[in-house]
Every structure is written in structure tokens, then in C-alpha cells.
């Protein structure tokens, strides 16, 4: 490894150390086929990597990615990536080794504009056949309590009234499809890559719901011609900070936005692409007509499992998910909830039982090389609990199966949202709805039902006796004797008293 890092760029690729894998294709010969909205670490370590691997094999050279964003903060990522010709250093963190490669599948990043004019124009180009998204679980304008499209959201109302100057990704998609319909360019596929159950169905509902507010005929055209494939995506990708930048430098690369990731990826996709697609299955993706069981296994065991850990970890001052798994009380709590309350509501998929998947996730979460912070995993609990945890509680109630540990998960979340750890240190705001959640969490200290009264999150679950009584008992125990006592009580007895 070199002592003097090389500043990453197309021109400097040849100067990178030999142990760093580089694109085996001429990037200047690539042409765009995909616009991706929401260029974060996960996209660059997952979807862009699969495409990069295809390109290294001499395929998909007309499917290069144009990056895009709709939030002011996306301009920061744009500046960093454009400064290095949209190249990304990917560092794989095996428990006992690391390796690095440079991914070159992205070839541009559009200006981030309030009216999304450049984004709309790019998506309207006939060469663009897929528009993909990673805009987080909370970015689809869905009512968390009902799971339905929320037409009353202020941003949706704005786009309905100003269809040519939208502020959301979905408004921009609708505007671009209007142009493509009118010019004869034809439809494109809208591909969600976020952790949502039925992410394709949700994306379709949001796009069509918004289109109907301003142009019902366009909505009908989109419904008839565009496709919205469901998918399951999986790779643990921590946020980038000083340690990740230093890791790239250790490989001899000066990268403003490197990405670290685990040595595991999975992508299961419904084969529903109205304008063609890359052959991602040639590099490890799975195409299937039945994404649901894969998606349910991953979202319930991994994503809900993350929420089982993260709030307890925050309250106990455990910095990373690996730290949580190394804590005997927290890891025992996690495994008991997984095996007794989550696994019964998960079906097997080809080659994998739910029990074996729990073992796999336990190994992945325990990887100490992955510095995945509890804070990152706990972020936006108002979307993640509603999407990942509460559906399992509803299934448990309907089946008459145990939910006491999941009620404890919700009580820990409420306690975390009060804003202090058990050592008295402050938990910084960590949810878009923090200003609403914190007063509720404060009130729940003496009146636990105040937390469950949030109908926008819990719907009618707050009135379900078995869940409500469990939540209230755990909340009282947490405030009276602490998080660790609550965890150990559950592991020992399965109930709060």
C-alpha cells in the first residue's frame, strides 16, 4: 500500500495501487440507461455494484447510472462525487480482512434544483429506461398507520398544484412521464430499492395517487404502460465518517465519499421491466415472480431485528450493532424475540429456513469490522417501527402467539425518544418527527398509554389489550429498574412481571 494517497478520478485510476480492483471498461464509452434518485451509500454499494460487475464482464454498457437528488442535502453528495468523476471506493469489511475496489457505473449527477427541472428533462430522455430510488422507508408519502398513500401531505399537495415544478421525486417522475407520453418516448420502469414490504406496489400507489390529483388521464396511461417491480435488497452499509475516509487512504486512495460494506449482498427482483433491464442475474441477483417471501424474511428478521437492538443499544450507550451483539443481555434478548416472536411469522424460501436466516443475521450483525452505529439504525423509528415491527405484532395478535418481547421493543423505543440514556447523557434528535415524539415519550413515563395514543403510528394497536398491557408493564419496569433489568427479565421469564 502506498504512503501517499492518490486523489480519485478517471485520470488517476491507472495510478491506484495494484491490490485495488478498478473498472475493466472504458467509462467514456458508457451511455446512460438509469436515473437513480437518492445517491447514498447503500445504492453505491449495492445496485451500482451489481451494474459495475456486469460492465466488468463486457455487458450493460448502455445502462450507466445518472445520479439525482431532490433534497438540498443531496447537493453535498453531488459535489463530492463530481469532484472525483462519480467514482466510488468500495471497501469490503470481512471480519478478518479488507479489500477495496473502485466502482465506475455512475457517470453523472444532475443539479439539485427546487423545481427539479434537470431531473425531469433527464428522465424524459428516451435512453432512460429505468428510474430507481433509495429515498428511505419514510420517503414514499404513506400514512404509517394505514399503509395507504397520503394525498394530504404538504409536499404532495404542492406537486398536485404545481405539476410542472414539483418538489418531490414522485412529482418529478410524473412530470417526466407526462412528457414521454406526449412525445411518444414511451414509459420507463420505476424501481424502488428501499426496505418496504411490497416496495413496488407502494411506489406504484404513490406515483398513480399523485398523478390522479392533477391529471387522471396521465394516471391511466402510467397504470397501463409503466411497471413497478417489487424487490428485496440486502447489504449492511454503514455511514461514512472519518474512519471510512481513513480506510480508503490506507488503500492509497483519497476519496471524499468512500463506502464500507459487509461481505454479503442479496438482491431479489420481480422481473417486470417495461423498457428492458440489465442482466443483473448474471452477477448474482435473483429474478422471481414471488419476491414476497424473500422480502418478508429479510424485513422481519433483519430490519425488524435491527430495531430490536438499536433502541436498547442507545439507552445502554452501545455505539454499534456489533457492540449490541457482544452484550450478553442485549444479544440474548434479540435472539429470543427473533426465534419466538418473529420466526413463526416467516416462511422458508428456496435454500433458506427462517431459523437458518436468524443464524446468518446473527453472524452478520456480530461482525466487529462493520462500524454500523446504533444511531444510524435507530434513525426514523416512526417509519421503521411502523413498517418493520408493528405488522409482526398484528400477526402475533391475530394468531394468538407471543408478542411480549415486541411490546418491550416498542417500550424501549418510547424510552429512547425521551432523549436521555441511562447514564444521563443526551440522545440527539434522531427522527423527522422527534419534536412530536419527545413530548409523548416524556408523558409516557407516568402514563404509558400516552405513547400508544399516537394513532398516526399505531392505528388501533394502542387499544389491543394484550399489546397495550404488555407495553405499559414494560414501560413501567424500564423507568423503575432500567433497561438491562427489563431485558434480563424478558429473557428469563418472557413477561414483565
From TrEMBL:
Matches recorded under InterPro entries: 6-PGluconate_DH-like_C_sf, 6PGD_dom2, Mannitol_DH, Mannitol_DH/Oxidoreductase, Mannitol_DH_C, Mannitol_DH_N, NAD(P)-bd_dom_sf
Domain Mannitol dehydrogenase N-terminal, first and last residues per copy: 33-281
Pfam family, one: Mannitol_dh
Keyword terms of this UniProt record: Oxidoreductase
Gene Ontology molecular functions: oxidoreductase activity, acting on the CH-OH group of donors, NAD or NADP as acceptor
Entry's EC annotation: 1.1.1.-
Class of enzymatic activity (EC top level): oxidoreductase
Mannitol dehydrogenase C-terminal domain segment(s): 290-469
Transmembrane segments: none
PANTHER family: MANNITOL DEHYDROGENASE 2-RELATED (PTHR43362:SF1), MANNITOL DEHYDROGENASE DSF1-RELATED (PTHR43362)
Descriptive protein name: Multiple polyol-specific dehydrogenase
